[in-house]
Amino acid sequence: MSGVKQSPAPGSGEVRVWGYLAEFDKVDEFLAAAAVVRDAGYTRWDAHSPFVLHGLDPAMGIKKTILPYIVFLAGLTGAAVGILLQWYTNAFDYPFLISGKPIFSLPANIPVAFEITILFAAISALIGMLALNGLPQLYHPLFRNGSFKRVTDDRFFISIETTDPLFDEHTTREMLETISGREVEVIEEGE
Amino acid sequence: MSANAINPASYLDNTGDDPVFRARLVVGDNDFHSVTNKVCGVVENRQPKIWWVAFAISSSLTLVLLAMIAYLVLTGVGVWGLMIPVAWGYAIVNFVFWVGIGHAGTLISAILFLLRQRWRTSINRFAEGMTIFAVICAGLFPGIHVGRIWVAYWLAPIPNQMSMWPNFRSPLLWDVFAVGTYATVSLLFWYMGMIPDLATLRDRATTKIRFFIYGLLALGWRSSNRHWHRFEFAYLLLASLATPLVLSVHSVVSFDFAVSIMTGWHTTIFPPYFVAGAIFSGFAMVVTLVIPVRKIYGLEEIITARHLDNMAKIMLATGSMVGFAYSTEFFIAWYSGNQYEAFTFMNRAFGPYAWAYWTMVTCNVLVPQVFWIKKFRTKTILLWIASVLINVGMWFERFVIVVSSLSRDYLPTSWGYYRPSIVDVLTFVGSFGLFFTLFLLFVRFLPIVGMAEVKGVMPQAHLDRPGHHGHGDYHGDIHGMEVLS
User: Fold this and answer.
1) Which residue of B has its CA nearest to A102?
2) B43 CB within 8 Å of a chain A CB
3) Cβ-based contacts under 8 A for chains A and B
4) Contact criterion met (CB below 8 Å) for B252 and A112
5) Packed helices B171-203 and B208-218: angle between N→C axes, nearest 10 degrees
6) I want to staple B280 with a disulfide (CB 3.0 to 4.6 A). Which of A77, B42, B220, B318 is the partner?
């Protein structure tokens, strides 16, 4: 896979080509194919599978997500909000003196602070995941392809975008057809 | 043995405990596509008659619930059987009952996920749905029991006309935060896990309206592995957050009782005892629901005998914990030397509410012991009956705790006997209507089995090559696939 030409020309004619799509139906062929694309040095490509496939991350060379840090910070924020809320409402704005207990004491304020910590962290986990994934994105060129519909059922796909610096009409197609053993499908951009 | 190998019954039987054979979590002749077909079929095919019958009954009961709530709000809490000394009655009993049921869903989706119990995949979506609907029913009762529900927002720290804030040192307020957070996090967890399956329904949609609605809900999920990577991480994080959360929720619920000075409530055993009871009752409800559903929709090969067997074992374990807690309470009542505490427990077992106490003991302590026998774990009708009895018993547990302690406290002159009014009973029955209505709508419109997760635990999802026994994940052993550093 070494002699890849630098070819920025993305298709021809009035319809712009978004990329190539190769289909697989066996897990191990798919994993091995992902490793081939990774080793060829492509960067703007993706592997699509109906479920989380363990081993695909290393096969694709995906780096660990920053999501945990986001969630951690959101959790800390939640803890601070929880403590400050209770301090402000019960100790500062309108001090409640009940049964001679201290106006502000941490033990009694832990449960609510804990719940708010979890709440903030959990919301950030979902929203952070979606944001990092660029979702919701209701339209994508891949959705124009009929066979891609089976990606949520039982098929595996590898897509390589034309914007990848290594993309070449012929060598990329040749590589994908070699590893998948099938004809590569051309995905067009929308109008 | 060899005769059994070709017997279709044993082909479907995955309940064996022989460690030499890894039990299959999806039995029969299934591949990824057949799993998709079966699960999506529940939503896509015409509903069986029984669905309509069940829906007619449950939605009618929901109307009863709404009528009772309207009557309550227009008249006042006097329509309930509450009196002095029993000023906490059905509302709190039902609240604790429903919130407890929710706990099994989170246990299955979060704790079993962290413990890598892969059998959870077939039932977690289902159980999480049950959690949400149970928490909705639970949240209803504190919402309506405040009497003047138009000022229910006083529960939340929102500036109000009294210029006062809620008291954050009260467990009742902790409850508002615990249950509110629990409902929100359960919903997020449920929805997030469903996104890939909603995308499956979108991709199979045959009508425009289905395509539009499922497409919108799926948020444009395209099964990209770069997305899966973050998805799985988010799932792991949510599971790790939901685990302490679920333990905290029923602990906080138990603080409503334990922080008071009422005999029979003021005990430190309450948090673990409540959590065990919650999981116990929740699994009973999952079993009660899942047995008819898998039968009606032909999902027996996905929600297998082994799943039921495992759930029965969990009920046996948690039921025994609950039984142990009952006896510990009695022991401490005697050992503490506190005459009020001792009286309360003798009163529970032999006083005016002895009928409720012994119903509770029979259903919660004795009934789950049948699960030592394999037949009771695998014969669905026996398992179903036992699970219904456990549901009954767990409702009575809360009734016994709330009512028996309050009805006879320190001062004999203020003793009384609590009887629910017909409004109490119909509201409770109506809450089942709401629960089942929501549940039936869920079965009708959403994927009830997490397809993407089930596919991941099927043998086909793992490397199936000579020398590799088809059970492991990728361990960096394919030539040319060494992990990049």
Assistant:
1) B169
2) no
3) 237
4) no
5) 130
6) B318
The domain locations on chain B are 21-461
CATH of B21-461, one of 1.20.1630.10, 1.25.40.10, 1.20.1260.10, 1.10.10.10: 1.20.1630.10
Which of A108, A121, A122 has its CB closest to that of B169? A108
Contact of B55 with B440, CB cutoff 8 Å: yes
CA distances to A88, B60, B90 from B72, rounded to whole Å, are: 36, 18, 13
Q: Provide the chain B residues 54-113 that lie in CB contact (below 8 A) with chain A.
A: none
- The Cα of B214 is separated from the nearest Cα of chain A by a number of Å equal to 11
Expressed as residue numbers, the domain containing A112 is 67-133
Option in A58, A114, A128 nearest B476 (CB): A58
Contact between B108 and B127 (Cβ < 8 Å): yes
Cβ-based contacts of A152 with chain B (< 8 Å)? 36, 196, 199-200, 202-203, 221, 223, 452
Residue contact A153–B185, C-beta within 8 A: no
pTM: 0.88
Task: Let me know: does A25 contact A31? Beta carbons within 8 Å.
Answer: no
| pLDDT above 60: residue B439 | yes
Q: Is pLDDT at B6 greater than 70 in this prediction?
A: no
Q: Is A72 within a domain? A: yes
User: What is the model's pLDDT at position A3?
Assistant: 39
At A33, is the pLDDT very low, low, confident or very high (cuts 50, 70, 90)?
confident
**Per-residue three-class SS string for B4-26:** HHCCHHHHHCCCCCCCCCCCCCC
Find residue A23's DSSP bridge partners.
A157
Write the pLDDT tens digit of every residue in B103-127: 888 888 888 888 888 888 888 898 9
With respect to residue A47, please indicate whether it lies within any of the assigned structural domains. no
Query: Per-residue pLDDT for B8 more than 50?
Result: no
Q: At what angle do helices B90-106 and B225-258 cross, to 10 degrees?
A: 150
Residue type, B281: S
Within a domain: A126: yes
Task: Show Cβ contacts of residue B446 under 8 Å, excluding neighbours closer than 6 positions.
Answer: B43, B129, B194, B198
ipTM value of the model?
0.87
Q: What is the number of structural domains in chain A?
A: 1
Pick the residue with more confidence: B301 or B213? Answer: B213
Residue whose C-alpha is closest to residue A124's, from B387, B102, B272, B234: B234
State residue A6's pLDDT score. Answer: 42
CB < 8 Å to B453, chain A: 51
Pick the most confident of A12-21, A162-171, B289-298, B427-436: B427-436
